[in-house]
Amino acid sequence: MSANYRGNSADCHSILELIPDYAFGLTDAAETRLVESNLARCPEAASQLADFQRLQIEMRAAVPQVEPSAALGERLMAAIQSTPAVQPQVRTASQPIPARRWNARVILAAAATLLLIASNVFWIAQAQQSRAQQQQIAAQLSEQEQILALIGSGRAQRVQLNAVSSTNPQAAAPVATLMCDPNGRLALLTVENFPVLPADKVYQLWMRQGGQPMNVGLFRVDESGRTTVVVTAPQAINSFESAGITLEPAGGSPKPTGQPIVRGTLEY
Amino acid sequence: MYVPLDDVELIRRIAAQDEQAMRALYQQYGKAIYSLAYRILQNTTLAEEVTQDTLLKVWRQNTQWNPDKGSLKNWLLAITHYTAIDRLRQERRQPAVHPDSIDDVERKTVIAANESGWQDGVLLRTLIAQLPDEQAALIELSFFQGMSHSEIADRTQIPLGTVKTRLRMGLQRLRELWLQSVV
After folding, report:
1. Which of A100, A253, B83, B147 shows a CA-CA span of 20 to 30 A to B49?
2. Cα separation of A131 and A138, whole Å?
């Protein structure tokens, strides 16, 4: 692998180089992990991957068409008749739930269980918090799955938000990219070259509809000035005219309080 | 007249173990599935077995189609592709069982990579013709023979680094040509 790879972090150029191999299942386990852990923040790589996936679809469908033997259909039907689908296991009427016998041993066990529960309220609360975190993680994974499905579907459109003005001409200009299905509400936001923020500040993404800005989400950047987040617009993205990012107090603002750092027209 | 069923309805009925829906699935997509399996395996017996295996995976619900992620046909062809490559790899370990054996297919494939096969698709034929022969042959070995870089290097006696570079360049070039042709 290239010297540009450090752990599971790599520059987007290195990821881009691996995309043909990754798309065709030719990367080794380390390269596969590297691509998958960096894909979301490398829009060009994600876009090329979507191209290769669509190309593979074409390649599979473009093979010469050949008629199978007339007997194949009947063999298939015979096979399915002897191959039931996997069905969820259900308890039938002939398998009644065994009646409980309330003997002294059971009562003691129940009492011990109640005592245990009562004395562990703290741990139950912890478990509930853990479940809440699991639900949050599941929701995030669902969003990521939807984004990956979007990228793979070929419906994804890319919109670049460019710097409005640069306060430091020596530094690289901040830039943001939205990858989205214009008919949907989810988008993958990637930003680069954004100044690292103090704790009392946050970046806020807005989309304008009829000239009115609507909050889309808050985010911070890592020490390299980058981040990639999934954001959800309040309505279908194609109902907005433009998008921009402003610097706001921690917790965000109901309306932008300053000039946008980057902005762009939502044209596809 | 045979009227194709809506794909979502078809899969819903198959999930409910409707055998007629399974028959309809075969009528709608059996030929495309078989054609891809035959393209990879170049053997009628093996291609029919892979076609049946693919459709039985749908019937048994070992894997489930998500309409949001693409068409039913493309999903079925992706399953077919991987099933056929798996079968091809099994056959490589047990060669010469069938009359038109895998060894024979592989020999023909390397020779004929720029004159037959998947280039028979109208669009792709014109695109592949624009690739250097050695790049086209490596794409063939990778995509339709399921070979890894090192397996291709062993087969073609081309250094591993050259295989990687040449295949990557070929795939990128093919992508560029394809984008130019479809946009």
Report:
1. B147
2. 10
